[in-house]
Amino acid sequence: MTFASTWNNLLSECEALEDGATLITPLSEQRIRITDVQEHRIIVRFVDSEKSRPLQREQFETLIDRVRSGIAAFELDRLPPEADPYPAVLSLHPRFEIDKQAGTLRETDDPTPSQFVRGGSSNSDEERTEPDLAVYSDTLLLIDALERYDVSELEDLETASLVNLYTLLSDVQRDADNLRGDVTNVLLDRIHHDQPVYGQFGSIQRTGRTYRSLRDEEEVLETLDEAGIPRERVTSVDSTKVDEALEVTEVAPTDVYEIEEREYVRKAEVDEEEKETRLQGLKDRLSATKGTEAEELRDEIEELEERINDLTSFRSGVEV
């Protein structure tokens, strides 16, 4: 790809950035924002000092030539300190990637998102549509319940109110975990490196986990026998076989098990009809209200996106 094509693609990526998006320079970790995109230069402003600086097209060409001419990735510490913003902006191009851990900049064959951009604020004037998602409806109901109940003093709440809270929290947890799993699958297809990728509310990082399961029992024992490990050293009591033995003997479970009783609460059923009625009431209230009251209610619903992270901060087996 010629430099002219690379430069035009980079300008397009800069113009497509969200308002207020922040770039992090890889060496000094200064925050910069792109304020203007011109034919021969890109203007950036340092967030902390509020000083503006033009980044020239010729300097980008020199940096790209260095990256392409080297056999290995270009080492960022070879740049002078004043050139730190250049690789940060260049990383917006889908073919250039910064490896912060290795301190290098390289050109890639596969497009990758910049891990040094943090999202800006979205346009609040954009028309919003109600998503057909269970997590949206259940979270809206949960917010309504949290505003009606004084959860700072749970002991003072009636049992029915606690049941409502538990049911809605359980539903939101399930819905959020399901949606997070779907989002995870899409992210895994897009992110092909182990560096953090930033959004407006945080960052994520691709990682891996190794799971092990034993092969067939006889195969394992034979392998260990050949290595001089006696079978008795690796075999242990199997609870399933113990249970089978208890069924045909007069041995009491307490003779072979340490038994501890633990009580917990679980969701028995959900009144979907009542939930739908309450949810429809909230929607009707929004449609019918006007003026200041309507604006306040709309603000409450728009804040749902910001508060959902706190309301659904449950641990799950799905990890990015």
TrEMBL record:
Transmembrane segments: none annotated. Residues 103-130, 273-298 are annotated as: Disordered. Residues 111-123 have a biased composition (Polar residues). Residues 273-295 have a biased composition (Basic and acidic residues). InterPro entries: DUF7983. It holds the Pfam family DUF7983. This is DUF2800 domain-containing protein. It comes from Natrinema soli.
